[in-house]
Design brief:
The protein is of the alpha/beta class. The chain has 13 helices and 13 strands. It is found in: Cell membrane; Membrane.
Length: 344
Amino acid sequence: MYQALIRPLLFCFDPEQIHHFSFNFLKFSFKIPFVPALSRKIFTVTDPRLEREVFGIRFPNPVGLAAGFDKNAELVDELSCLGFGFVEIGTVTPRPQPGNDRPRLFRLKADQGLINRMGFNNKGARTAAEKLRRRRSRVLIGGNIGKNKVTPNEKAVDDYLACFHELKDTVDYFVVNVSSPNTPNLRALQEKEPLTELLLTLQAENLKQSRPKPILLKIAPDLTNSQLDDIIDIVQTSRIAGVIATNTTISRENLQTPRQTIEAIGAGGLSGKPVRERSTEVIRYLHQQSKGSFPIIGVGGIHSPEDALEKLQAGASLIQVYTGFIYEGPAQAKRICNYLLDNQ
């Protein structure tokens, strides 16, 4: 029903407008008393065979919602009713910022992808923490953190520390985002020296806490094998919990969408089916070269249950969806969980 009737209607309108419409619709409909319980019954698959123990956390199933959908932790309770084993909020920055100018979100229907250059638009880490303190559900929460656009890279660590302290009592794990292509010079922080310094500083602060939280690093799919080798070394040196592979790509290769359309859209990170293969390659490389020494959350181009299994077989411990959720609809997590049970 979603793909045949609802998606074609939604896709007639501006992507960012539909995103806000969907948010408001979910907020309104889930205030109706029976809707949350009914949604949980329809969309949630509960089976001990789906449970995963990863970086010290027990996940009810391996399918999560990636960062970017619920930037400000405004819809955590509603999303918890759609069958996800965990929800990642953000990317949040220390101070609120509007992000880049509109239009900044574009559909590539022929490729089942999205291009976004949102630019970490969010209401700030403090607002996200306040929202999480008021939530009713107990769904596991990841906190994806970044730096403000105006913060120079030399002071980026201060922004990540500020986000860490705001969110440390309200999230179950952290994700350090240095791989978005939509904040100027952010990806320079993926270089070995600044990234090692950033993660060592964050981890040192984390270990001072009475209850340290797992810290993960989210990386781009555009890294070379040599750079991926550096990532493995950095993860092992800093002793963070793991890696999320991968973020969006700046590549525009092998697309079905006409080149003139792509050029008219301009800069931004590409997600969805076009990044599926490269994301899986990165997961497999990291898993094999590190000899499985740290967990990987696989994300990138997961639309079908078969895509999800591919990521897990490549070495991912957990997976996340975002663009696939938009294209495939609210039953995506349920379909993936049922498929995984049938293909254990």
